[in-house]
Design goal:
Two copies of one chain form a homodimer. Chain A is mainly alpha-helical and about 160 residues long. Helices cover about 70% and strands about 0% of the residues of chain A. In chain A, helix 5 (about 100-110) packs across helix 8. Chains A and B meet through helix 2, helix 3, helix 4, helix 5 and helix 8 of A and helix 2, helix 3 and helix 8 of B. The structure holds a DNA duplex (30 and 30 nucleotides).
Chain lengths: ~160, ~160
DNA sequence: AGCAAAATCACCCTAAAGTATGAGCGTTAA
DNA sequence: TTAACGCTCATACTTTAGGGTGATTTTGCT
């Protein structure tokens, strides 16, 4: 299948493609600059822009998957009705993973699976898998019920 | 094994390869350009700075300590649904009818349309009509979103 | 280095939710 | 009294959600 091939070598192909584009661009710039004999500033600026873009792209690519939710500790005997206090114990007992908690929180905000997928930069099928496990672990049959239970457990505001 | 090694450090190797290729390319360009222009120092300096920054950034990013999920402790589940004050104003502004509010509140408990229909002794189609109007009046696209909005408006606990 | 868990994605299928439209029926206010 | 509104129900259709299965990749831990 073409889709399977694409999925398998997507990263490599993208890198290759990017490299090819850069090569082509540099070659083109060189030819232009030599012929017209323009100043180096333009050339260097172009290079700087290209590499800045590359840096940004790399930064996004590298840092996006590394974000994780950090649960800080909670104090006791705070009987605040107004604010939301995250219940770390419930997270343990339910056995929800960090990613599942992410999905659950977005789900509680009324987002569809597709919207959650876009927000987390993953595919719809992945979110479906996550939601299935969430429903299973929270013993809910629908997402609304899962959200309700999660709210009562102190997992979402 | 070589395959395991490749799999493990594939990304790093690719990045390294990419950088090496770019370096080679610039070196090659340098040789050609130095013949026709002598303000190469500015160009080289800029590129050097950019590359240094990129290198530092890459090094930092690649070796950055990953944020771990630390669930520390404890404790005490405060029943945070202590008092719920119904917001009559919101009921006015949204224009929800009494029956629609009934459906909305059951909806917020995670019941399906069929379950709500059974609970209120009406048909499924009736609940569907109600839910449609609820979504319309609350400007929501899904029931989870409607529930979230209703909660923020003080219509449901 | 190797294992286990988590995360990712795909495909197929069914169930539920949501959209659109129309219609009958009772209450109420102009 | 009639126009407006709320409640009820229907039919047909599209979209989203959920269930089940299997697979690969990433990551954490020993």
């Amino acid at each position: 299948m073409t889709t399977a091939f694409w999925l398998k070598y997507r990263s490599t192909l993208l890198y290759g493609l990017l490299l090819a584009l850069l090569l082509f661009l540099l070659k083109w710039l060189e030819l232009r600059l030599i012929m017209v004999n323009h100043s180096f500033e333009i050339y260097a600026g172009s290079i700087a822009i290209i590499f800045t873009a590359l840096g940004i792209w790399l930064a996004v690519k590298l840092t996006a998957p590394k974000v994780k939710t950090v649960v800080v500790e909670k104090q006791v005997f705070v009987d605040n009705h107004a604010e939301f206090t995250f219940n770390a114990d419930a997270l343990q007992t339910t056995g929800l993973s960090t990613r599942e908690l992410d999905v659950l929180q977005l789900m509680a905000q009324g987002l569809s699976n597709q919207q959650i997928a876009d927000r987390l930069f993953v595919s719809l099928n992945t979110i479906k898998t996550h939601t299935s496990k969430i429903l299973e672990k929270l013993e809910a049959g629908r997402r609304t019920q899962a959200v309700d239970k999660a709210r009562k457990l102190g997992l979402v505001p």
